[in-house]
């Protein structure tokens, strides 16, 4: 398992949680909940990107060893 896999999984959870909040906020006309959902989605995407970078760094490190 790559070094960033945990970050990617946590990011996906945040993204899905944010999508749910955004949807509920949209259905109930709750702009605050919509904004919180959008923030969570962005946070999740950032975590996923960080996890991808960590995995790429780990792969590069292993390639250099070989």
Report on the structure:
- The protein is mainly α and 66 residues long.
- It has one domain (5-65).
- It contains two helices and no strands.
Compose a concise summary of this entry.
With 66 residues, this protein is mostly helical. It is built from 2 helices and no strands.
Write the layout of secondary structure elements.
Blueprint: H1 5-27, H2 31-65
Helix pairs in contact: 1-2
Entry keywords:
2 helices; 66 residues; rod-shaped; single chain; mainly alpha
Helix count? 2
The number of distinct structural domains comes to 1
- Sum up the overall morphology in one term: rod-shaped
Which whole number gives the mean pLDDT? 92
Largest sheet: none
What helical percentage do the residues reach?
Answer: over 70%
- Number of distinct beta strands: 0
Strand/helix succession: HH
Uncertain segments: none
Radius of gyration: 16 Å
User: What proportion of the residues form beta strands (DSSP E)?
Assistant: under 5%
Structural class: mainly alpha
Span of the ends, CA to CA: 19 Å
